[in-house]
Amino acid sequence: MAESHYQTPGHLQRLRQVCQEKGLDVERSLKQTDLSSLMEGLYIKVEPDNTVIARYKYVRSSFLTTIKQSDGHWLNRPIIPNLLRPGADLFG
């Protein structure tokens, strides 16, 4: 797996900051987060004629291990917003 193209160099510090701003347990949030800079995995859609007919997701094993070792399912944890870097333009 290659390095992610979508993480900024200070993404973990920003995660800490957001957790503090939201009153969340920073250390617990970091424990529940994959701290690697590698891509999570690969997502594939099959779209003949602009219609999605199938989806596949390959996730690297170390990402799965981190998730399995965290404190329960993500639905039972606080939601931490996934932020874009300042100046990012999704539609540019």
Which helices and strands occur, and which strands form pairs?
Blueprint lengths: L10 H11 L4 H6 L9 E6 L7 E6 L1 H9 L23
Antiparallel strand pairs: 1-2
Explain this structure to me?
The chain has about 90 residues and is α+β, with helices and mostly antiparallel strands. The protein has helices at about 10-20, 25-30, 60-70, and strands at about 40-45, 55-60. It has a two-stranded antiparallel sheet with strand order 1-2.
Name the descriptors:
single chain; 92 residues; alpha+beta; two-stranded antiparallel sheet; 2 strands; 28% helix; globular
Q: What portion of residues is helical?
A: 25-40%
Average pLDDT rating: 87
Category by helix and strand content: alpha+beta
Biggest sheet strand order reads: 1-2
Cα radius of gyration in angstroms = 16 Å
Query: Low-confidence stretches at least 5 residues in length (pLDDT < 50)?
Result: none
Brief account:
This protein has 92 residues and is α+β, with helices and mostly antiparallel strands. The chain has three helices and two strands; from the N terminus they run H-H-E-E-H.
